[in-house]
Amino acid sequence: MNLAPGVSGGFTHEGDVMQQTETQSTGGAPQHAPGTRLREYETIFLVRPDLAEDLVDKIVERMRGIVHRDGGKVIKVENWGKKKTAYEVKKNFRAIFVRFLYLGDTRAVAEFERNLRMTDDVMKYQSVKIADDIDASSRAVEADVKLPGDPEMPERTAREPEPFGGTDFGARRDDLADEGELPPEAE
């Protein structure tokens, strides 16, 4: 018996009763057949520094789901923590850095970046192709890493103005006046 295009599943005969078999996955990470070849990509994105840790994790899980949905495989996620940026990014000098290493095709990367653009908490991102033609079933998934980031450095406070004509400056000026007086015969 043939199924219509786009219909997944099959039929088995048991006696006179026709029974449909389920072929959909249970919603976890897709299992890749041996020999499936994908590209390896790295995407680093910067998240607003004032964002709570659980919201950062929510963004990471959303992006992980996008990679899985598009037939990719997440290799490793690294949360580098809050770090100082080299220059101001959307009025912030600090950001939470997140690195995604994953397998997929160009459509998966396009969808990944499209979702990063739509997320208001993501300030900047960059994707780079690491390798071509990787066997998805042989590439092992690594454990996620969460680093503490840089220690919080307080903003420099303005120096307190010193009083004009303080005791040190005034005493020094008096010393200069004594040394700099002209001898009486020079007048």
Task: Explain the overall architecture.
- Residues 1-27 have low confidence and may be disordered.
- Strand 4 (73-89) and strand 5 (92-104) form a beta hairpin.
- The chain is built from three helices and seven strands, in the order E-E-E-H-E-E-H-E-E-H.
- It is elongated, with a radius of gyration of 32 Å.
- The protein is of the alpha+beta class and 187 residues long.
- It has helices at residues 53-69, 106-118, 167-179; strands spanning 10-14, 17-21, 37-47, 73-89, 92-104, 122-135, 145-146.
- 16% of the residues are buried.
- Uncertain ranges: 1-27
**N→C terminal distance:** 126 Å
Number of strands: 7
Give the helix level as a range of percent: 10-25%
Number of helices: 3
Average of per-residue pLDDT values: 78
Order of secondary-structure elements: EEEHEEHEEH
Question: How are strands sequenced across the largest beta sheet?
Answer: 6-3-5-4-7
Structural class: alpha+beta
Portion in beta strands: 35-45%
Structural shape? elongated
Major sheet size, sense and barrel closure: 5 strands, mixed
Radius of gyration: 32 Å
